[in-house]
Write a structure and sequence with these properties.
- By secondary structure, the chain is mainly α.
- The protein is built from 7 helices and no strands.
- It is 86% helix and 0% strand.
Length: 216
């Protein structure tokens, strides 16, 4: 009887063979989940780059159309407000620095910096969009409308970019709301990164548009 009791105690204190196997299986499942998550992010990044490439092609076509209309109607080109648009361009470039500020904040786990950076983009982007609308109003008073080839080419190009800015602003508000609720961490911030990639694209495209439309 004493021997049986001793064996029972030893068996109860002996490590279970099933425990290491269960831990290994759990670790394997976690590894698969992480690999799947990383794979999905990489696929999403690839999809984003393909989308931006297609958008760049569309903008390129509209830029060519504008160049043709611009040299066919030089008198209407002279009505463009270069000083105002130069200020607006500077504002949009500042918003890109705000994106970098926000992204660096989330990478460091600094929630305040992230929120301030996002808020800065929303404010600066909104100012850019409103000034663009003001310029449209000003140009319409000078007779530059969609009824003329130059106006059609100008509004198609800059209007498409303005639509992208508006989409970026709505997206920024969405990202800000999620950041405010603590969704993003320094380990998981791909939502901020994707939006930032889109906003930088919008800024780079505008540099080309500003150069071709207002400076040449």
């Amino acid at each position: 009887m004493q021997q049986e009791t001793t064996l029972t105690k030893v068996a109860s204190h002996a490590p279970s063979v099933a425990e290491p196997a269960a831990e290994h299986a759990e670790h394997h499942v976690d590894h698969l989940k992480m690999a799947s998550f990383t794979y999905n992010i990489e696929n999403s990044k690839m999809a984003m780059w393909l989308f931006l490439a297609s958008e760049m092609f569309l903008f390129s076509v509209l830029i060519i159309a504008y160049i043709i209309a611009r040299y066919a109607h030089p008198e209407e080109h002279a009505q463009l407000n270069v000083p105002l648009t130069s200020i607006n361009t500077f504002i949009l470039l500042l918003s890109s620095f705000s994106v970098v500020w926000a992204l660096s904040g989330v990478q460091m786990g600094n929630q305040t910096r992230l929120l301030r950076g996002l808020a800065g983009v929303i404010v600066l982007g909104s100012i850019f969009f409103l000034l663009m609308m003001y310029e449209y109003s000003e140009l319409s008073h000078h007779g530059i409308t969609l009824a003329h080839p130059f106006g059609m080419a100008f509004y198609a190009l800059t209007g498409l970019h303005g639509a992208h800015v508006l989409i970026g602003l709505v997206w920024a508000i969405y990202v800000f709301n999620r950041a405010f609720n603590g969704v993003y961490t320094k380990e998981s911030y791909w939502g901020v990164e994707f939006w930032g990639l889109y906003w930088h694209f919008v800024d780079v495209v505008w540099i080309f548009i500003f150069t071709v439309v207002y400076l040449l």
